[in-house]
Amino acid sequence: MPPDYDNANAAVGPELLARLVDAHAATLVLYARQLCDVPEDAVQEALIELARQPTAPRQIVAWLYRVVRNKALSAARASQRRRRHELSAAEHRRAWFGESPSGRIEAEEATAALEQLPSEEREIVVAHLWGGLTFVQIGELVGVSDSTAHRRYQSALSQLHEQLQSTSGESCPPPDKTPR
Q: What is the DSSP letter of 38?
């Protein structure tokens, strides 16, 4: 038989919390796991809420289950909203490239290749090609010298060239050497 926690006049202190965690945390996590992806968080939030109570609820264990259930359902709804938002954002994301009139490379292929670059190299390519920044300006922006920014730009163009050549199967001319 579980220990008696039903004392509505008792304060919620560390000793009571420790006993509740020892006796019920594992089953509360198991219970929350069926409702959300972050059951430990739901249990922890419920215990924190219990600790903030000026007096213990009349039926502490039942109260914990109810609060864990509410926290888990809220977490599940938040997760579902986040997934819907991310999917919606991904569907409505503008492509980085427009359609090529010559049809040499597809916008999706070019976008995917650009996304495969390391973030700093991608930033340099976008800043130079679409932002029109000079390599001196880009160097200041990313905290490197202008010659390093230019080297990374050239490296990124070479990587893009290789990736696009391998996905399209066609031979395309190497990237132009952009003057500094």
A: -
